[in-house]
Every structure is written in structure tokens, then in C-alpha cells.
Design brief:
Keywords: Cytoplasm, FAD, Flavoprotein, Iron, Iron-sulfur, Metal-binding, Oxidoreductase
Cofactor: FAD
GO molecular function: hydroxylamine reductase activity; iron-sulfur cluster binding; metal ion binding; peroxidase activity
Structural class: alpha/beta
Number of strands: 21
Strand content: 5-15%
Protein name: Hydroxylamine reductase
Helix content: 40-55%
Oligomer: single chain
Number of domains: 5
Shape: globular
Mean pLDDT: 86
InterPro entries: CysJ-like_FAD-binding, Flavoprot_Pyr_Nucl_cyt_Rdtase, FNR_nucleotide-bd, HCP/CODH, Hydroxylam_reduct, NADPH_Cyt_P450_Rdtase_alpha, OxRdtase_FAD/NAD-bd, Prismane-like_a/b-sand
Distance between the termini: 44 Å
Radius of gyration: 29 Å
Length: 890
Amino acid sequence: MTAGNAYSQYVGTNPASRIPFTLVDVLELYPSIQVGLEHILGNVPILPPRYYSVCSSPLMLPRHVQIVYMVAKWQSSKSPLKTFTGAAAGYMSHLKTDALVTAQISRGYFKVPESLETPILGVALGTGISFFRALLQHRAYHQDHNAIVSKIRLYFGIRHASKDFLFQNELDTYVNRGLLELAPACSHDGASFVTPVTLIRDFPTSVAEYLDNQGVYFYCGIGGTIPEFHEAAIQTALQTVHKSTLGSEMETVDEMKASGRWQIEAFSSCLDHENALQYQQKVQSKKEDTPISDVVGDCAMFCFQCGQTNQGIGCTKIGVCGKTPTVAALQDLLVDHLKHLSWYAHHIRIVYPDTTSLTEVDRFSLVALFSTLTNVNFDATRFVTFIQQTKAFTDTLSQEYATVCKAHGVAPRAVPWKRTDANVVDIEELVASGKKVGVLSRLRAGRNDALVGLQEMLVYGLKGLAAYTDHSFQFGNEKPEIYHFIHEAFAFLWSPEAGKVDKVVDMLMKCGQVNLTALALLHESNNTYGAQSPGIATSVPRPGKCILVSGHDLKMLHDVLEACASYKTDHGVHINVYTHGELLPAHGYPALRASPHLIGHFGAAWQRQSLEFAHFPGSILMATNCLTQPKTEYKDRLFTAGAVGWQDIPHLEDGQYAPLLAKAVAGVGFTDADLKFNYPANPFVNTVEKYHVGWGSETVIGAAATVLQAVTDGHISRFYVIGGCDGYEGERSYYTDLAKALPDTSVVLTVGCGKFRINHLDMGTIGDTGIPRLLDLGQCNDSYSAVQIALALAQALQCGVNDLPLSIVLSWFEQKAVVVLLTLLSLGIRNIRVGPSVPAFLRPSIFKVLHEKFNLMAIGADVHIRKTLPTWWAATKSPPPRHTDSLAVH
């Protein structure tokens, strides 16, 4: 599970954050429970065997077997004097010399190469050193008997060298004997978080040297997704040395796996992690052509639409986002019903293009589809209502289609699905129906994960498109062609053409093109408050009653500000309004900035709300997406609006903000004693008291002469678009590291909540122009501004977009990021890097197609990105051959 979930507090392996919760705690917490010994013996499961890697060679110790283990200890949250340890490790730590222990030796995962001359590349994490110590003893024995033995290059990942460096003296001996090249990575000893992944990517030549000479790769360490990170690092290293593509190196690793040259022994320290590990090992041990449905087996749910997908494969018990199996099934059923509705709407338009009867259906489709976006709506009752409404609209359209066909003399087409009549009142029946039509059922039926994943990418693109279109509709702005395409695309998924990869890719590109229209419309809509202009958003408390607005919707924020102004007129009470998350750019819009009620920004990106909201002394409004499971500390002050919803959280309809204001006035508010916000510090970025905002396309393009002169003078050598979504993963610190590493002739354009990984950095200005080197273009939808700036630059420099000194590094998380990526690809923009991981719905074969067609790449270490960037204009003092003196918006 991802950090931030309550579940991880109980099963996590980090002693600093884990909260022990045992049967003893349950009995102490609920004294009314009376349990006899017979109940305990009958219900407490028997401890399964614990497996440890043997760390000694029988050639060295023929009559002994050695193992190594560490004892993790946790203190009780109620009684610090009470400590907990792992069952097996704690047991062994109390054994005396000569004690008898029941043990059994079983065959391990690893198969050691027969030849002692085979090079070995290894990764050991913590007690994973066991296997390598035994292997080194084995090779040392043969070296002592005059055999020729090759070296082992070993990356040893530990926390602290002073207390975690197992067998240090012995390993040093093997280094001196020429048996070992040791690369220790002490993650917690320095200012930067160094792991074997870091060393593999920073020194790729050694990796290639071992593996290119028929070397064998061994990994022994923690399971889950960690082996995948090391695999990705090795692929990146090989790609760098070979100057190849990621796709070709993925094939290289696949060939190593098939030939036994890629071996993994992964372990975990608790049963919950062991279950996840076994699940992951199944995935790793099977080839891509083994369907996911065979791997996951029977499960309560299946969802892989976002970046927090469990184990990088799919959520099968409960969503990491907090989505329950019930809500997951209802969302799947709603999407399926929307496909039915869309089929009728699309075919009505085919027969009668000028119809005006679909307006209500169009607008309903938006909010219903938007509600299934990640972190938007978790309220099962709302989805039951949506399903009922969708079915009613579909029944009406079915009759209308027959009528229209008859009026135009056209024979109606038969619907391509089997009709079902699920009881739209019985939620259990709806859930059962949802499971029958969900993505897992299609994975099982199709036996083609790559194609289904690509089809799902289209669905997720449509969800992002619906979200952006709904934002514009809040202003009363809409374009019929967007509605038409949503229905066309859903109808396409019912057609035989959807079974052809190239046709699905074509529809994905069309989705990207239509989204460009949606982004342009939203840009125009947001400019209702004036085009963005440079400004400062403060991040310090101001005394007074307060409201916090989080999400994306500028119109809702404006309406809250207006409601506060009216409240002050009527009641004489001033309410300060703070933005949160992706509403930070609101401070760049002149009309919003002019409101005396918009006072500042509170907190960082969406995923920290569970830590931050409890420290806000007023009411909180979630506008649009990015809602996580509310905590008790602030649940009574939380409201939702628009498509957002959570069971038992008040939902404000049609701008009725009176309850929100009343709760704010009843709250404590900030006082003169509050000099800074007191929520927990962000471990990944430094806290700042102000943000520079307002550098939208109008402002940047308006400074054309200055920008182009800076290019000519050598103050700008390259532009970087670094942004997108933020998330829980520590790997997203990659974006921070990248921005820090760029030369001072770089200009960074950032969009979305991914900006919170870099907008605390003081990157200075472009020469003496006064223009910041870090330009905040706005929200994720302001990727439109990035596109406009790129097109304008290409025109001014008289070159193609892909010839620009421009690098795009995107952080993806949910479906808005998916459709933004589709837009960039549809414009022919190549060489984009995405991360921190490849979406689970994109199987390797499909990612390879996108890589070959668009040179789409997964992120790697910063040093490798800079090495693989086009160099025709990097860090030069001379400008491109020619340019015009103005930038034009297209």
C-alpha cells in the first residue's frame, strides 16, 4: 500500500511509522470481548514457516549452515515500554547456544552458473547479502584451489554503514583478493538518498561490461516493486552505453530472463508484504503473453487506471486511493452504460447530424464520466443514481434512434451488446453486473492484455477530456464537437475496428486532438478573470476566519470569493480564502487576485491533504478532483461540490455555499499568534513563504523580444517542461533532482501539481532580464500554454517543434495527465519522458510501439537524460541560424 493509507501504518516495515496492532491490542481496546483459550487456539492462524537465505558455503563449512537476520523492534503506541519484534527473528534472538531449532533446508530460487568464469552482477539489499556471501565463499574456495574465478560486481544497499554493513571485514578481504567489486549504497548516511539504483544509473559502463560478457544478474532483497526499479535502472544503463532504445534493452532483459541469466530472490518482513511479494513474483516469473487475469486470479476488484496502482499491476482488494470494491464495480458499470448511451447518441447523429435533442445527454455524459476519474467520487449512492440516470437516458435514446431512422428511411443497426436488465435499485445486483463488464472480465475474455490496455487508455483519455470540458462548462462554455467525439469514441469501442491496435492508436490521436480544443476552451474560460500575469502568492497565515478551497475549478473559487464578499456586506464578518493544491495558479489571474478575500496559499499538492487539512482552522471545500479519504480530524469541516463526492460528506449543489461559510465563521480561524502554518513539513521539499505565479502563455509570448535576445546572448540554451501530476512516491523527487542539476542557462516551464516538486527552488533569473528561470504556467490544463509557447518558438526560430532546444519531462498520475500526453503525441511532439513509472495499463509491447513511433521514454537518472538530449544547441553561445523577432500564438 502507498504511504498515507491507514493500512500501511499497520503493515509497513518502517519502524518510524508502523503502529503495532495485535490481538492483544484488540482485547485491551475492547475489554467487553471475552475470549477463551479454545477460541484463541481455534482462530489464531498457525505461523507459516519463515524462510532465510543460507549465507555460508558447504565447501567452507561442510557441517554448518549459517543464516543472518536482523531484529526489527517497534514500541507500542500506548505503552512505550512494550516492544514488538518479528515473530521468527524475535524468537531466534533469544535462543541460547546449543539450543535446538526445528529447521528444514529447501532448494532456493537461484541457480549458480556452472562456470566460475561467468561474470556476476548482483544487487543485495540488507540481509540479502546472505546469498552473495555464500557465493563468495564458494568462489574463494575454488580460487584457493587454483581455479580461474571471475569477479562479482555487487551493489550493496543499506541504511547506515555504521550499523548495517554486514560482513564488512570479510567483504573487504574478497575485494583485496580480486573476487569482488563492491559498491555500497548507504541511503541514510548522506544528504542525498543513495541506493543501488542510483549507482547503477550513475555508472552505467560497469553494468554493461558485466552483462555484455554473458554475465548473470542476481537480485536478493525486498520484494514488491523494488526489483522492478532495479530492472528499470539496468535497462537505462544499457540504453546509455549502447546508445540504443529502451525497447531494445527491455528485449535484452527479457532474453536474459528466458535464458536464466536474470534471477531474483525477493523477500519481505511481514505476512502482508509476503502476500504482495508472492503476487509480484508471479508477475515477474511469467512472460508478457501470460494474461494478467491468470496472474491475479479471483479478486475482489481490479483497477489499474492511475499511478498509485498497487504493485504496479492493479488494485485487487481495495484501491490504494481508498476506492472500495463496491465503488470500483459501480464505476465500471457506469462506464459500460455510458458506452451504451454513447452508441445511440453517435448513431443518431450519423442519421440526423443536425439533431438538437441531445444537449441534456451531452452535459450529463460529462459529469457522469468525470465522476469516475481518480480521487473524484467515492460515494456509492451517487453512482447508483448516475447508473439509473444513464439507463433512463439510454432507453429514451433507443426509442429516439428508432424514430429518427424511420423518419430518414434508414434501417436501424443492431446494438452490439447483449441486453441485461439489472435491477437498478439493488446495489448488490449492480455490483455483480459491474464485475461482469469491468476491465478484468474483458482481460479474461480477450486474452490480449496489450489491446485491452490500449482500449483502456482511450477510456482514461476520455475521462480526462470530460474533466477539462466540465471545467469550461462551469463558465457556460462548451463546444458540440467535444460531446460528439466522446460519444463517437465510446461507440468505436463497440465496433470490430476496436480490435485492431492501429485503429485504437488512431482514435487515441484523435482524442488528443479533441482535447487540444478542450484545453483551448478552458484557457479562454479561465481568462474570464483576465490573462495570467506575474504575481506572488504568499504561504503564511493571516488572522481571521478562513476557508480552504482545493481542486482545480477557478469558477467555484470565484463564486466562493463572491459569497464571502456578500457575507461581509450582510454580516460584517470578513472571511479569508486560501487555495490548496492546483488552485495555486488562481493567484495569477488579475480578477481573482483583486479580491480582498483571496489571501494566500495553504499546503502543497493534493496527496498531503490528510496531513495538512487537520491543521486548517476553518471550513474546507473540495472542488473537482484530488480528494483522498477524509480523516476524523477535519471530516466535520469538509464539503464537496461538482463531480466530487464522499459518503457522509455534505455536497453543495448549485453554488449553495451558505453551509461552507457558516462552518468557517464558527471555526477558530487563524490568530495573531499563528506566524506560520503548523502542518508537518514536507520531507521532499523545503517550505517557502511565497510562490511566483502567473507566467501563462500570454505573458511569456509577450516577452518575445527579451526571450529571443536572451537566446542570442547565450543566457538561454534550453527550455525544459517539467510538470504534470504529483503523488506519494518518493521516486517523484527525481523531478526535483533534475531541476537542481540543470545549468544556469536553462529555463524551466512547469504546469500541474507536479510543480510542488520544484517551485520551492530559487533558480534565479534569465541573465539580467528579471524574468525567472522557473516559470509557473499554471494548472495541468495549462499544458496548452506550453504547447502555444513551443509552437511560437518554432515559428520564431524557423524550425520544427522537435528541432527546438526543448525537453519535456512529464509526471503522470491520473487520467488528465493521460489525455495531455495524448495531445502532445497527436501534435507530433517526440522525445517525451514520462514517469515515475510506466502506466500499468500500457503493457511492454504497447509501450514499445509508442516508443518506436514517438520516442516516448520512461524517465531515467538526470545524468542520462542530459546525455541523451539533442546537442545541436546545448549550451552554445551562438543562436540558431535565423529567427524572427516575435512569437505568435496559434
